Structure formats: C-alpha cells, structure tokens
Amino acid sequence: MVGSEVILLDFWPSMFGMRVRIALAEKGIEYDYKEQDLPDKSTLLLEMNPVHKKIPVLIHKGKPINESCIIVQYIDETWKDKSPLMPSDPYTRAQARFWADYVDKKVYDALKKSGTLKGEQQEKAKKEFIEILKVLEGQIGEKPYFMGESFGYADIALVTFYCWFYTFETLGNYSIEKECPKLIAWAKRCMQRESVSKTLPDSKKIYEFFMEMRSKLGHDHIQKVEDFSPFRGRGVFLKHGRLVRIRY
C-alpha cells in the first residue's frame, strides 16, 4: 500500500480521529497523516467534507469518507485480508453496529457534562454518565471484548474515550474505575494492543491540552454558539458578546 493513496485529515486529541487511526493500524495500512488547524480549516478539509467541515476525513484514491464509524466500516470492507473488525455473523454484526451507535449517541455528551457542569447539575450529569457506562459494562460482561473473543468495531468505537476519562474525572471529582471496574479492565485489555496503545495519547497530556484550551476560552464567560468540540472540528464561541475562534 502506497501511503499517498490513503490520507487522514485529523486532530491529535480527537477521540473520533483515534478510531480511524486504530482501524488503520489494525489493518497495517500506511497513510499520510495531515494534522488540521481546526479554527483555520484547510482548503483540503473544506473540499473533502463540505457538509460538516470537520475531522476525521479519510481520503482513499482521492475520494473522501467522512464520520468516524463509517470510516472504520469502510476500512474493514476495503482491506478484508487482515484483522477483520466486524463480526462475520449478520446478527452479531448488527449488534456491533448497535453498540457503536449507542456510544456515539450517549457517551461524548455525557462525559463532557460530567466535568464541565457545576453543582447539582454536575452531580446529576455524573450519575447519568455512570449509568451509561454501566450499560456498556453489562454488554461486555465477562467477555474479553465487546462482541466476544475478538477485538473489533464496537471496541474501537468506545476505547478512544478512555484517554479522556482522567480529564473529566479530575474536573468532576469522581472515579470511573470505582463505579465500573470491569469496564476499566476491558479498556486496559484493549490498551495491550499495539494499535490502541500507540494511538491513544497519555491521559495527562490530554488533561493539559483541555485545561489550556479552557483557559484561553475564559470558561466562566462563554456562551455556547455551537457544540464546541476540538474533537469534531469545531471551535467558535461567543465570549463577552463577541465571536471568538480559538487556536489549539
């Protein structure tokens, strides 16, 4: 595989981009990595994702594929000769998609609220987030991985949030491992895979990044203009009544 045939537009702390990097590593695919300056989006990013204008974007032979879980499925279907990520059984495959969709719809927003809200709202958010994680923990059960004996699509969908847990645990003053020990054991098992351990940044590096970003934004004086997410490729806020773009 020639690296220039596969290009990834990404941003290093993005848990969504990490999904794609893990999938490419599992398949042994060489690629060109192009780090994106999200507040000043590149012409290439805008051309390759004109609808959402966000990362990650996989470009294969000049054609863009957007949305992280869709990209992971594309990678699995395109490079079938090594490390299948989706189960072969149609029902189990449907279940893997269900759980990845559950992660997409539930985990990110709940994690963010658990560390950024205050007072009673934060306590409620932490409880709701732990309840979501317990549902996921129940699905894993005593199995090594989400769908059984093999690491795959559903594991990739969730494990990239693991390096962000420390940040929001610290901000929210709670312990995910205390509440969901089997889930954390699963995450540590995933981290034993080279594809995961070499992709996920150190948790304290993520924390330092987040705190620097929050300091620049002026956390106590910001109104949300859109769902700010350095992980999805957005970075516009209203601060003291003025539109602000933040550089990371």
Automatic annotation (TrEMBL):
Task: Write out the catalysed reaction.
Answer: RX + glutathione = an S-substituted glutathione + a halide anion + H(+)
Q: Highest taxon of the source?
A: Eukaryota
Q: What is its EC number?
A: 2.5.1.18
Q: Which UniProt keywords apply?
A: Transferase
Q: Which GO terms describe its molecular function?
A: glutathione transferase activity
Which part of the chain is the GST N-terminal domain? 4-83
Q: Which GO terms describe its biological process?
A: glutathione metabolic process
Name the Pfam families on file.
Answer: GST_C, GST_N
- Alphabetized Gene3D superfamilies for the sequence: 1.20.1050.10, Glutaredoxin (3.40.30.10)
EC top class, as a word: transferase
The record, for InterPro entries, names: Glutathione-S-Trfase_C-like, Glutathione-S-Trfase_C_sf, Glutathione_S-Trfase, Glutathione_S-Trfase_N, GST_C, GST_C_Tau, Omega/Tau-like, Thioredoxin-like_sf
Residues in the signal sequence: none
Which CDD domains does UniProt cross-reference here? GST_C_Tau, GST_N_Tau
**PROSITE patterns, per database record:** GST_CTER (PS50405), GST_NTER (PS50404)
Instruction: Please tell me whether the keyword rRNA-binding is annotated for this protein.
Output: no
Q: Which residues form the GST C-terminal domain?
A: 89-217
Instruction: Quote the PANTHER family the UniProt record gives.
Output: GLUTATHIONE S-TRANSFERASE, GST, SUPERFAMILY, GST DOMAIN CONTAINING, GLUTATHIONE TRANSFERASE
Q: Which family does it belong to?
A: Belongs to the GST superfamily.
- This one is known as glutathione transferase
| Origin species | Helianthus annuus
Lineage of source species: Eukaryota, Viridiplantae, Streptophyta, Embryophyta, Tracheophyta
